[in-house]
Give the backbone structure.
Amino acid sequence: MLKKSTWLHLRIPFSFFLLPVFLFALSVSPNIKADRIVIVFVILHFFLYPASNGYNSYFDKDEKSIGGLKNPPKVSKDLYLAALLFDMIALLLGFMISWQFALMLFIYGMVSKAYSHPIVRIKKYPFTSWFIAGLFQGFFTFLMSYLALNDFDFAQLQKSTLLWAALLSSAILWGSYPMTQIYQHEEDAKRGDVTLSLKLGILGTFHFTAFAFTLASGFFAWYFISVYEIYYAIVFFVAMSPVVSFFGFWYFKTRKDLSQANYTNTMRLNFISSCSLNFFFIYFFLHSMHFIG
């Protein structure tokens, strides 16, 4: 039996924040089956992501709030072993889909380990960590999900429209990722992890995210207008309006009081953003598949 602290550090509910990438891949998939949707969803959100969370927590040994965990308990060897176990289960289940999917799961797992392991610790390099986290949680995960959901092989991941969609997944993450670090400056600096948010400063992080998110939204609109129709671009902007509203509200509060750049407000933004994106991609999937009018 795993310790309670281990379950907490695996942060399974936190996988909700990465669900939009899976749903985006699902919404553009031409060859889906219900059983594959379920197994790919379970592999990613109940095993691969928690394994990455647990491994990162074990080596970070955070004493203050981390994503999805306001008061993290002390870590133990049990967490390290659980992270490796969850990784192994993800790989074994991945082979039920294909060896290509299992290979991509393995690559993702290795990169996430390099992100936090003290020998490599990509996390301490501001621009490298920002780029790699966005690339693998977005572009790579989108293609990995698409391959598994459709039971395709690597040769079928080369369509330009598919690669653009994968890049859009990263664009959203590249824009939002520094915001997830905004309340951890003190803890990161103490460990020697110079994150992009720490480099930018609190208000600089807001400005960077506003610019990057605006750019990513413009590319999303271009994608839907070019590949589908303008209707989906309009629905996308409507779906994202709660994110923009809260972001603006939080920004002006933080300009007056920098302590507002805290864990609670960061999680609120993450939750609103994830709900908005999840809603849009579910709607896009159901509407484009003609399940709704």
User: Anything to note?
Assistant: The CA atoms of residues 15 and 49 lie 6 Å apart. DSSP finds twelve helices and no strands in the chain.
